[in-house]
Amino acid sequence: MGDERMSADTPVFAIAVAAELAGMHPQTLRQYDRIGLVVPGRTRGGSRRYSMRDIEQLREVAQLSSEGMSLPAIARLLDLEDEVRTLHRRVVELELALREERANRPGLRVFAAGTSGSVMAVPSGRRIRRSTEVVLWRPWGSTPEHPDDLADDPDDSAR
Q1: CA spacing 20 to 30 A to 82: which of 19, 52, 130, 139?
Q2: Which phi and psi angles does 89 have, rounded to 5°?
Q3: Which CATH fold topology does 15-103 show?
């Protein structure tokens, strides 16, 4: 296997080992698989293989079930936890993309036209005098919903 690393999602445990690690009977794991509560990976031959995340979920199911939570409620909770994990990964991806975009963007991104018609770049944070300069371009996403919003904001700094 070389330098490959296993993650918490790598399916490695046979059903007997997973059942022992989760403190359950193998038949219980088969039932949870059938109803879609904790669905393990499968080998090419169709054997179940459980990951550490599956084991953790099985332990969580046992805990919640012992506290009186129904299996449909537990299934919904596990689905929501998976969704949170997926959304967290997406947020990390988007933050990375935003960081890269900001690193590749030149510092001066707002332009203004003077009364003589000259165009100049406006540094971030510089206040534009509305009586003599008009903003021509601003980065995507920073445009107000209505053009009149610019005139209404007395504390509006350079955009």
Answers
A1: 19
A2: -60, -40
A3: Multidrug-efflux Transporter Regulator; Chain: A; Domain 2 (1.10.1660)
